[in-house]
Amino acid sequence: MKHPLKRVATATAVVSLVLAAAACGKAGSSSSSSSSPAASGAGGTAAAGSATGSIGLLLPENTTTRYEQFDKPYFEAKVKELAPNVEVKYANAGGSPQTQAQQATTMINSGVKVLVVDAQDSAQIKSSVEAAKAKGIKVVAYDRLAQGPVDAYVSFDNVKVGHLQGTGLLSVLGSKATPSAKIVEIDGDSADPNAADFKSGFQSAVKGHVDIAYDASGLWKPDVAAQKATAAINQLGASNISGFYSANDGMAAGIATSMKNAGLSKLPLTGQDAQLDAIQRIVAGTQSFTIYKAYKPEADAAAEIAVNLLTGAPITSIATATKVNGSGNTVSSDLLTPVLVNVSNIKSTVVADGLYTVAQICTPDFAAACKTAGLS
Ligand code: GAL
What we know:
Distance between the termini: 32 Å
Bound molecules: beta-D-galactopyranose
Strand order of the largest sheet: 2-1-3-4-5-11-10
Largest sheet: 7 strands, mixed
Shape: globular
Radius of gyration: 22 Å
Number of strands: 12
Structural class: alpha/beta
Strand content: 15-25%
């Protein structure tokens, strides 16, 4: 699978190339194909450049920092670049599937032409997807695969995310990875199909290598995850535990507190999302690693697909894979590649991509740890 940044460049080049060819009457007119969409006139394709109307963006919750910090602004910026006259209408469900259903209805009635939805509950959103389709509105599933007749899906290879978490945990454990080594596993919310993919990838990597002695859902909530971790510590006995699996960084923050209270801060702890607080825990040694899913390529791909669906342009050069959702629909998909981030590659990943500066990571509380880690 191509690295996301390369793949987006290719897709954009193809779209611009098709247009350039149409404009100039000959294929491969390289000048426009090699430059970014903006270079070939406002917003990539002529159709996109003059397109009007609105795209609805529905995000699931705002406890996890990614949505408002990265997904929303990157998506809005890309739509603006591709289709400056197209409005993005935004709503966050705050963790409530009922609220998200209402938000979808409001957007459908307000006349959006495309709905981009990151479902709080992939089964419950199905009726909203069907209602949108019934009105001729295109639907893109973003990051989490909604049920129903969605037109396209953009996310990461989420089984690979889990597998990286598993192989990462085994390598941190080293010789301590034995079939009797007790691991506490805190999964995501089962209403989110990604949680099952992370879990199956993780378990396939660690099966036979360690003992999953405790397994529960933290519902993507830091406080719930902390409670579950404390319950596991009380049940298994602190000294009998070898490590903790957290499906994401948000929950890892809560689990790290429970570990600290039990004197277990130095045990391995996994994560996902490359949140700033997680990067700081990695530098300080109270989290082993996180899984970085570069947000910009994901949001860019979703914006391009949404704009292409709005203008009637093809999406096949972007959504080159397929995935079957929980209602049995086979969906054209763009699945990007995740990367494990530990103390050795913070600079070449999240800093290089402009997510955080070294100064943002190495605040006074972490200055000494950053120095030791050679992060400057
Ligand atoms: C998942 C998403 C993760 C995560 C979680 C909590 O679907 O892929 O990045 O943080 O939801 O919102």
